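Example S7 (structure tokens).
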């Protein structure tokens, strides 16, 4: 058996319906579309969500909620991740990016209080949560704002 000799089984493939090819074909004149109406016209079709003139679902449902367009998005780092830095080193945005803790600084970097920090560090970031600040000061570290 060769790939060039393969054929589909007899009767499994039917001829394509060729419409609009004369009255004698049985599919001529209106080309199987019937007469008049939206479905008989060229370029026919209805947009998704169209309900025949009835008010569509997406317009019937009440709108709720609010999106604050001025919301700030921070890159988040937990206190437990700061243990990888050497004692008394300065941890700023560049140092966090080099360490791979921050990929993209959106509106700044915020330190969160999950975990424990054992190394005294000087932090220069945009925000620090209250719990994280207590843990850093308890480890004899300092926080400097940007």
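Recovered sequence:
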């Amino acid at each position: 058996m060769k790939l060039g000799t393969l054929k589909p089984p007899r009767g499994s493939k039917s001829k394509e319906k060729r419409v609009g090819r004369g009255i004698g074909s049985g599919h001529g004149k209106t080309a199987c579309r019937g007469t008049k109406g939206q479905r008989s016209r060229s370029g026919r079709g209805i947009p998704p969500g169209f309900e025949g003139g009835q008010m569509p679902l997406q317009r019937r449902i009440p709108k709720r909620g609010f999106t604050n367009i001025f919301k700030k998005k921070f890159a988040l780092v937990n206190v437990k991740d700061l243990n990888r830095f050497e004692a008394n080193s300065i941890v700023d945005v560049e140092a966090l990016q080099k360490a791979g803790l921050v990929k993209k600084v959106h509106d700044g970097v915020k330190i969160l209080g999950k975990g424990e920090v054992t190394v005294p560090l000087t932090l220069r970031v945009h925000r620090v949560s209250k719990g994280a600040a207590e843990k850093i000061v308890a480890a004899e570290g300092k926080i400097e704002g940007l």
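Notes on this example. The helical segments are 57-60, 93-98, 130-138.
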